[in-house]
Design goal:
The chain has a single domain, classed as 3-Layer(aba) Sandwich (Aminopeptidase). It has six helices and seven strands, in the order E-H-H-H-E-E-E-H-E-H-E-E-H. Strand 6 and strand 7 form a beta hairpin. This is L-amino acid N-acyltransferase YncA. Keywords: Acyltransferase, Transferase. It comes from Microvirga guangxiensis.
Length: 190
């Protein structure tokens, strides 16, 4: 499968919003309060993504992942939005579409964002995971994420309780990417 990761552009707002809406509803149906679930419409997501992609912040990176020409996921990283992150960068969004899960896309996306944040001068990264989102927790722990605390994310419509997962040695974490690429190349040989 051909996978590419590239910087998001303004024209990506609608596909990102649609994927964000669908994936969020599936992931948080049993976790989010009904009011938040009802307010997080595709239109609300579209307005937010149009705004974020129109007002690019020099310190935040937003990328999309395409698999065989289809939007498979997206991610964003930059300066932390909560003091619990300390001097780490924050992975603010990391979403993979349902049909593309378990294909290594999430791993590649996380590693790509980590590399971008290291190149921006950060030594570590962190991300918040809603308590109860067990598949995501298992995924981050499998990739070596260390749970170092918890906090309340004020969010736009829902104050969610989150665990903070961190990777404080980005060179070691990124060594996984090099190993992964070599393994992927070896596995694709006839």
């Amino acid at each position: 499968m051909s996978i590419t990761i590239r910087l998001a552009q303004k024209v990506d707002a609608l596909p990102i919003a649609r994927l964000h809406y669908l994936t969020w509803r599936e992931t948080y149906r049993a976790l989010a309060p009904q009011t938040a679930y009802d307010l997080m419409t595709e239109e609300a997501r579209l307005a937010r993504w149009q705004s974020m992609l129109s007002h690019a912040e020099s310190e935040r990176i937003i990328v999309v992942v395409e698999a065989e020409g289809q939007l498979a996921g997206f991610g964003a990283a930059g300066p932390a939005s909560h003091e619990i992150y300390q001097d780490r960068a924050e992975i603010k969004f990391l979403y993979v579409g349902t049909v593309f899960k378990r294909m290594g896309i999430g791993r590649k996306l996380l590693l790509h964002l980590a590399r971008c944040m290291m190149e921006a001068g950060y030594n570590g990264i962190g991300l918040g995971v809603v308590i109860g989102n067990d598949p995501a927790i298992a995924f981050y722990e499998k990739l070596g994420g260390e749970k170092v605390g918890s906090y309340t994310d004020p969010g736009p419509v829902w104050r969610s309780q989150n665990y903070l997962y961190v990777w404080d040695d980005l060179p070691a974490f990124l060594a996984q990417e090099r190993k992964s690429i070599l393994n992927d190349k070896r596995d694709s040989l006839p």
